[in-house]
C-alpha cells in the first residue's frame, strides 16, 4: 500500500468521525452564535491543535501508556468531565444575547468581544481533556497504518487529519455565523444559553460513564 492510499483510507474513516456531533461541535456552534465568526474560527484551530497533540503522543507511544493505565485515563477523563460541566454551568447562567442587525453582520457589540487566546484555549482543552481519542487513534493506526511507514510520514497524516477537522469546523462556523441563521438563535436568548449549557453538562456526564476498555 502506498502512502497516498494509506492516507486516503485513514481520511475515509476519519471523515465519518469528525461530522458526528459532540462536545467540539457544540462548542463551535455556541462560539459562532454568541461570539461571532472570528472567535469560532480561532476555537476551531484550538480543536485542531489538540487533535494533533493527541496524534503526536499516540505516535510516540505515550498513548499506549495512557490507554493501559487506569489511573492516567481516569485523571484525564475526570478533568474533561469537570471542564465540560464548568462550560455548561457558565453557559446556562450567561447573560442572554441581544444583537442588533449591525452586530449580527459585523461581529460587533459586547457579545462579540472575547479574547482570542481564550477561544483557542477553550477549543484545545475541550478536545484535549477527553481520553477517548487516544483509544481511537491507537486502534485506527494499528489497523490501517503499516509498521513500515516512517514516523515523519505518520506525523504528516496527523497534520492532514487536523487540517480536515479545522476545515470542517470552519464550514460549521460559516453556516452558523450567517446573519439570518445567527439571528434565529439569538432570538432564543436565554433559552439558547440553557440548551447549550445543558448539552455541555450531558456530554460531561456521558464522558463520566465511559470506560477505558
Description:
The protein starts with a helix and ends with a helix. The chain has helices spanning 3-18, 23-35, 37-59, 62-68, 70-92, 101-106, 116-128, 132-144, 151-176, 179-188, 190-209. It is globular, with a radius of gyration of 18 Å. By secondary structure, it is mostly helical. The model is unreliable at 106-112 (pLDDT under 50).
The string of secondary-structure elements, in order, is HHHHHHHHHHH
Largest beta sheet, briefly? none
Number of strands: 0
Total DSSP helices: 11
Using only CA atoms, what is the Rg? 18 Å
The residue-averaged pLDDT reads 81
Q: Globular, elongated, flat, extended or rod-shaped: what is the shape?
A: globular
Approximately how much helix is present in the residues?
over 70%
Low-confidence stretches: 106-112
Termini distance? Answer: 30 Å
Q: What's this, in brief?
A:
The chain has 213 residues and is mainly α.
Blueprint (SSEs and pairs):
Layout: H1 3-18, H2 23-35, H3 37-59, H4 62-68, H5 70-92, H6 101-106, H7 116-128, H8 132-144, H9 151-176, H10 179-188, H11 190-209
Name the descriptors:
single chain; 80% helix; 213 residues; mainly alpha; 11 helices; globular; 0% strand
Amino acid at each position: 500500500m502506498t502512502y497516498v492510499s494509506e492516507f486516503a483510507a485513514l481520511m475515509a474513516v476519519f471523515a465519518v468521525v469528525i461530522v458526528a456531533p459532540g462536545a467540539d461541535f457544540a462548542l463551535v456552534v455556541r462560539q459562532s452564535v454568541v461570539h461571532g465568526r472570528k472567535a469560532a474560527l480561532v476555537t476551531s484551530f484550538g480543536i485542531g491543535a489538540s487533535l494533533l497533540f493527541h496524534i503526536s503522543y499516540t505516535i510516540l507511544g505515550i498513548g499506549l501508556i495512557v490507554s493501559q493505565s487506569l489511573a492516567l485515563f481516569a485523571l484525564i477523563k475526570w478533568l474533561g468531565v469537570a471542564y465540560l460541566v464548568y462550560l455548561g454551568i457558565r453557559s446556562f447562567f450567561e447573560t442572554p444575547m441581544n444583537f442588533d442587525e449591525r452586530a449580527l453582520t459585523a461581529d460587533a457589540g459586547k457579545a462579540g468581544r472575547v479574547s482570542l487566546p481564550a477561544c483557542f484555549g477553550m477549543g484545545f482543552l475541550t478536545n484535549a481533556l477527553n481520553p477517548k481519542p487516544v483509544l481511537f487513534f491507537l486502534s485506527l493506526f494499528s489497523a490501517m497504518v503499516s509498521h513500515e511507514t516512517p514516523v515523519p510520514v505518520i506525523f504528516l497524516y496527523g497534520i492532514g487529519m487536523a487540517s480536515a477537522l479545522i476545515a470542517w469546523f470552519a464550514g460549521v462556523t460559516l453556516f452558523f455565523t450567517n446573519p439570518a441563521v445567527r439571528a434565529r438563535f439569538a432570538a432564543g436568548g436565554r433559552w439558547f444559553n440553557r440548551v447549550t449549557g445543558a448539552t455541555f453538562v450531558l456530554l460531561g456526564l456521558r464522558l463520566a460513564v465511559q470506560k477505558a476498555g
